[in-house]
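Continuing the series of single-chain predictions for the mutant panel. This is the parent chain; the variants come on the following pages.
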Amino acid sequence: MVELTVRRARRDVDEQAARAQLRRQIARLEAQLSALQISGFPYGRVEPAGPGARGPHILGLGELESIRDGLVAGLDDARSRAVERGERQAAARAQLERMLQEPGRHKFVRVASRDLGEPGCGVWHVRPRLGLIGMLAGWWQVKLSSGCPLAS
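Parent structure:
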């Protein structure tokens, strides 16, 4: 009888240690996920990971592991989307630099401020200077629009 009680006590202690370790891992992953979401605001939307709550109860080891695994998958997905967004923004910035250096080679090309990762509704646009006369003469310029249209 004493041996059975000792085994149960050891199992309870091991389970408590495992729960504490899983809770620390979940807290660390949630902190990383929230930091990633904040750094990408307003573009970095991250969906909550893990199973929905079934009401108040103590989570078992399996539930804690599934929450941790869902957070790991969500964090990997959010990181890959952040990298892709950064690559798109870098490409848009390179395009804008080429437009500014040689506007005549990029006729009527537009780059939105949103594509550059900047707030607002502005758009960089290569246009002919002086309208049709400028287009025929080859006078091109890069203009930044004034921003968002007024609400009607």
